[in-house]
Amino acid sequence: MPHEPDPPPAKKFKPGSVFFRLERNKPGMLLPKKGNVSTPIEVQRKQLPIFQAKPQLLNQLRQLQNAIIIGETGSGKTTQIPQYLYEAGIGRLGMVAITQPRRVAAISLAGRVAEEKRTQIGKLVGYTVRFEDVTSSETKLKFMTDGMLLREAIGDPLLLKYTKSHPVHQHRRDICDHLWD
Prior knowledge:
Layout: H1 41-47, H2 54-63, H3 77-87, E1 96-100, H4 103-116, E2 125-129, E3 132-134, E4 141-145, H5 146-155, E5 175-177
Parallel strand pairs: 1-4, 1-5, 2-4
Antiparallel strand pairs: 2-3
Helix pairs in contact: 3-4
């Protein structure tokens, strides 16, 4: 009889997470803690690992034409760095593109960042996936699939709408590309 592989390990939640408490009557079922009040978004943002590196990160990004940022899943790379760039004035005259390999990720991340920025989706924060463009002339942070960025590059090889107008770095592209491990 062949040996069956071990099942994948269960997701471990950190103490303090809303999913940390296990329901005793139903072993293995994860439920929110009783009486949990959601943590304000600003507090959540400051608790992300990337928040500690914000000043150094922005300083480095101002000096570089291109950057690849590698960090742990859940560290805030995809949701926070575009906001940091926008808040610091980097890319304000153009747009910051944030790519994701899947449409669901692009849409859900755009929704999260719009919530964090307290704006309606399609205004400051928008998204473009195949057959769906939820952006406007106000959009500065644009989440999109990798394929949509490639499609835009066909019509605009220099990706000029993502160009930062800066006297020293006139050809700099403010594209925050999310790389999967």
